[in-house]
Amino acid sequence: MSASVQRKLLDILACPIDKYYPLKLLEFNVKDQLIVDGVLLCEKCGRFYPIMDEIPVMLPDDLRSKKEDLDFLAKWKSKLPNSVLDSGKPWNLKST
């Protein structure tokens, strides 16, 4: 997948919970212009959707892995906004 195709696909994603569009994209790790690690943020409901190994994890809350999400937040806390770390949904670092 080319970088331009990947970004175009990410640009059309909406929040699966409230259907808000567009989601805010933060890029953490880019290799050969592909987003390897990053996050999509819903500014309406406060949910975050990790991008891991080039794949956005866009699952509803009840299907998400709390451990995986908390590990993601801990790993990238220096690059994530405080709003996500402190009050992001479905969980955050303050709620642990």
What brief labels describe this structure?
96 residues, alpha+beta, four-stranded antiparallel β-sheet, 3 helices, 4 strands
Could you please describe the fold and organization of this structure?
- With 96 residues, the protein is an alpha+beta fold.
- The chain has one domain.
- 26% of the residues lie in helices and 24% in strands.
- The chain is built from 3 helices and 4 strands; from the N terminus they run αββββαα.
- The chain has a 4-stranded antiparallel beta sheet with strand order 1-2-3-4, covered by helices on one side.
- A hairpin with a 6-residue loop joins strand 2 and strand 3.
- The chain is globular.
- The model has no long low-confidence stretch (mean pLDDT 93).
Largest sheet: 4 strands, antiparallel
| Structural domain count | 1
**Helicity level, as a percent range?**
25-40%
Distance between the termini: 37 Å
Strand content: 15-25%
Q: Per the principal axes of the C-alpha atoms, what is the gross shape?
A: globular
**In angstroms, what is the radius of gyration?**
13 Å
Structural class: alpha+beta
